[in-house]
Amino acid sequence: MPLFGNTFSPKKTPPRKSASLSNLHNLDRSTREVELGLDYGTPTMNLAGQSLKFENGQWIADMGLSGGVDRREAQRLRRRNQQLEEENNLLRLKVDILLDMLSETTAESHLMEKELEELKSVSRRRK
């Protein structure tokens, strides 16, 4: 028998209290949302003055009161963008044509210089 009693027998722990004394976990989801205000709505954010909202897995520009571009302005910008793209394509075509003309003229110039050199050398031989 030990001198000071059995030192390795711990005391029994008291039973735990209920995790929550509230009965809100018993309520269904819709009642809980009404009671606790859990209806968050769609996530929104503001980037550089543009308001965006998350709907159906995509961020969409909000056309509300936040100063989004209206439909007419967006159409005007699309038309202007289309005009500028067409103008850019036309200018690229013109540059390509001018480069072709330049290379053709340069090739002709080199041929003429070569012929001139040959004629000079033939005339020198005759003298």
Automatic annotation (TrEMBL):
Residues 1-26 are annotated as: Disordered. It holds the Pfam family Chibby. Keywords: Coiled coil. The keyword Phosphoprotein does not apply. It comes from the Eukaryota. InterPro entries: Chibby_fam. The keyword Nucleotide-binding does not apply. GO terms for cellular component: nucleus. Residues 74-122 form a coiled coil. Residues 1-10 have a biased composition (Polar residues). One of its GO terms (biological process) is negative regulation of Wnt signaling pathway. PANTHER family: LEUCINE-RICH PROTEIN, PROTEIN CHIBBY HOMOLOG 1. This is Chibby family member 1, beta catenin antagonist. It comes from Suricata suricatta. The lineage of its organism: Eukaryota, Metazoa, Chordata, Craniata, Vertebrata.
